Amino acid sequence: MCTGGCAKCLGGTLILLSMIAFLANILLFFPGGKEIDNINHLSQEVWFFGGILGSGFLMLLPANLFLDLKYNDCCGCCGNERCGKRFAMFSSIIFAGIGFLGAGYSFVISLISVSHGPKCLMDNNEWGYPFHDGDYLNDKALWSKCREPKNVVSWNLTLFSILLIIAVFQMLLCTIQVVNGLLGTLCGDCCGVS
After folding, report:
1. Within 13 Å and on the Cβ side, how many CA atoms surround 115?
2. Beta bridge partners of residue 127, listed in sequence order
3. Does 16 map to a domain?
4. For the chain, what is the radius of gyration of the CA atoms?
5. Could you give the number of structural domains in the chain?
6. Which of 175, 187, 166 is nearest to 10 (CA)?
7. What is the domain range of residue 109?
8. Can you name a GO cellular component term (predicted)?
């Protein structure tokens, strides 16, 4: 497969993952699937927009570049089309790095949130974080510490886990594009055709 064709495939996959991450982050603003009356009752990590900024918008930059990379020759390089295609592949390495950083940001935010657990109304009628160091992950009985919003533990755990998995796939795809971009820079669009 040509390096430009590979990049196009990666770009399409990254756009799909970005849309899912964006949606998952939006859903986190509705804990337990319901609207809340006070925004201060949302988990702190929701406001860091890991899925919207990191795995969402920041990933759309490289994804859109990868989609058009097969046909991009950067207007040639001093009239030499091969040089332009190689430069376009080289620039994709930089954009893959930006995408990797965005996905890394989403990964860290999601990992912290899964570890802390959600913010909820506890038994003492105060809003806070009743779980410590991910203890609720191994003991589902601890989930009863959260009284309101209903199902907030499973809601947050599911959505932040989705964001975590998406971020891992996005980092993997951006790493593949770095290798693909290096091959495209060295060999041209198709290895054997410079």
Report:
1. 7
2. 121
3. yes
4. 21
5. 1
6. 175
7. 3-187
8. membrane
Spatial distance between the Cα atoms of 86 and 120, rounded to a whole number of angstroms: 53
d(CA 157, CA 162): 8
Question: Rounded to whole angstroms, how far apart are CA atoms 63 and 16?
Answer: 10
List, in sequence order, every residue forming a beta bridge with 80; answer none if it has no partner.
77
Residue 111 lies in a domain: yes
The two counts, helices (H) then strands (E), for the chain are 4, 2
User: Element (H or E) spanning 22, and its range?
Assistant: helix 3-27
Q: What is the pLDDT of residues 38-70, one digit of tens each?
A: 899 999 999 999 999 999 999 999 999 888 876
> Which structure tokens are listed for 160?
């932040």
All residue ranges of the chain with pLDDT < 70 are: 1, 70-84, 188-194
Residue 193 placed within a domain: no
Give the strand pairing for 127-128 and 120-121.
antiparallel
pTM of the model: 0.87
The residue type found at 17 is L
Amino acid at 26: I
Q: Which two tokens stand for residue 114?
A: 């899964």
Question: Coil, strand, or helix at residue 150?
Answer: coil
Q: Is residue 192 part of a domain?
A: no
